[in-house]
Design a protein that fits this description.
Length: 151
């Protein structure tokens, strides 16, 4: 009887650890970076703040994407079913830089640069650069400085 109780307690402990791991994997704010925008650069902290042509081009490129505080699966175990999430966007002039997260077995933080003409035409993808947690802010700033595709 004593061994049965010990086995039950061990199984319960293992189940608790598995549930905690799943909860961590589906974190709602797992790794949203805090990157202050460079001087004279405006920031957007929600998908709702992106101009429609930039949002459409982003969704065309990555598919379904959750907003900054939305549910997100960091790892390759899917709990929420969402593996893309918006982090932030910066813009200066026609150039928009959008930082995102991509969950899965190889978590990354892709940064996309879009050039938006004032004519309302679709935004064009100027650059796509993959970054990691320790390089995101630097990559986003460098992407902002790339020459416009309209030059």
């Amino acid at each position: 009887m004593g061994r049965l109780v010990i086995k039950a307690m061990l199984n319960l402990g293992a189940a608790s650890l598995a549930i905690a791991a799943l909860a961590d994997n589906a974190s709602s704010d797992s790794s949203v970076a805090e990157c202050p925008p460079p001087l004279n650069v405006a920031a957007a902290m929600s998908l709702r703040q992106l101009p429609e042509p930039v949002l459409e081009a982003l969704r065309e490129k990555v598919g379904d994407i959750e907003d900054r505080d939305g549910p997100f699966d960091v790892g390759d175990v899917w709990v929420t079913g969402h593996h893309r999430r918006f982090m932030f966007a910066w813009h200066r002039g026609e150039r928009w830089v959008v930082a995102t997260e991509r969950g899965g077995i190889a978590y990354s933080q892709p940064v996309f640069a879009y050039d938006l003409r004032s004519t309302g035409k679709p935004a064009t993808v100027a650059e796509e650069i993959y970054s990691q947690r320790d390089t995101l802010c630097k990559v986003a700033a460098e992407t902002l400085r790339l020459p416009s595709s309209h030059d």
